[in-house]
Prior knowledge:
Layout: H1 15-18, H2 21-31, H3 37-40, H4 49-57, H5 76-89, H6 94-110, H7 113-124, E1 130-133, E2 149-152, E3 156-164, E4 174-180, E5 192-198, E6 204-209, E7 218-229, E8 233-234, H8 240-253, H9 262-272, H10 280-308, H11 314-340, H12 350-362, H13 373-383
Helix pairs in contact: 2-5, 6-7, 6-8, 8-11, 9-11, 9-12, 10-11, 11-13
Amino acid sequence: MSGALSSLSMTAIPPEDEALRAPVRAFLAEALKDVPAPVRARSWSGYDGAFSRALGARGWLGITLPTEYGGGGRSAFARYVLVEEFLNAGAPVGSHWIADRQSGPLILKYGTEAQKRFHLPRICRGESFFCIGMSEPNAGSDLASVRTRAVKGADGWTLNGQKIWTTNAHHCQYMIALVRTSGEPEDRHKGLSQLIVDLSLPGVTVRPIEDLSGDSHFCEVFFDNVQLPADALIGAEGHGWEQVTAELAFERSGPERLFSSIVLFDEWLAFVRTEAGRTPSAVRLAGRIMGQLAPLRAMSLAVTRKVAEGGSPVVEAALVKDLGTGVEQLIPAAIADDLYGRAEGTPVPLELLLTLEYVTQVAPSFSLRGGTRDILRGMIARGLGLR
Length: 387
């Protein structure tokens, strides 16, 4: 193995991090014992601020951040174990998800000391939630065509423009927005910067967008002459593209790119284990899905190792995300084929059918969020030296 794929070697979770599973599982078993599967299937899209604060009180948020900022000072593997357990249980982690996964690490890497002292302890306590301001109307997946603009003045920045498909913006206190601070949209990657936007400021309007499932976790966010302080800039002015590219590696490589359908898979497996649910074709399907999940998890762990070593595995993360969302979309489609292909009158549990209905409705978005397939495959081809 050589080139871009050389870092995808077999990786094991260190014992001290693996030891986190038992207490986390015990906590989740009690906290979620009365939550039905169709609700747990929302998991990292589910919003529950009190639940996030409970995790923060146990030291399970910001676990990779330094202790001097309120974090756990642990490795990326410790966070991997936590996230894997949260998603497999279907915990409602959407409120703190973005802050814990990428805003906190981004602030740690590029922020000023004052930004770190203010934001990181609040993230670790589950008191401060962040959203990501990248996508814009009529831009599709082309992040570089940013038109939202911030103009530098004597006292700070004046922000105007619009973001869209911003997850949970209506529940968050802050957005880290990719904006243009110089040049024109045609300049592509030049002149972009990242700003921390307090969403309570005058001139900010957040409108939730209801999707086909009835959920409203996507939002439109409008900026009308929003006045930001000079220290709203994070990192270096004009270096926003490089910062965002590194940030997206956090978004694309995590277990959430494998386990968005895992609650449905577990519910279906429980049915297949019963006498009424077990058929030869269902057993073969279970093996087919597990045969794809196992190597993907190994790849995801290999990416985690590279993150733990201080790397920025952009190409490897794109590969995991592209393949992972393929499995996430296969699971509801294949389970629907199995259940609705059975003989009429087969007693399928109602909770399983409701879970299947929800996951089927949201599954098309799996290959859109965090980068479409075309974008990811272009990155992989470039990493292999083919473009």
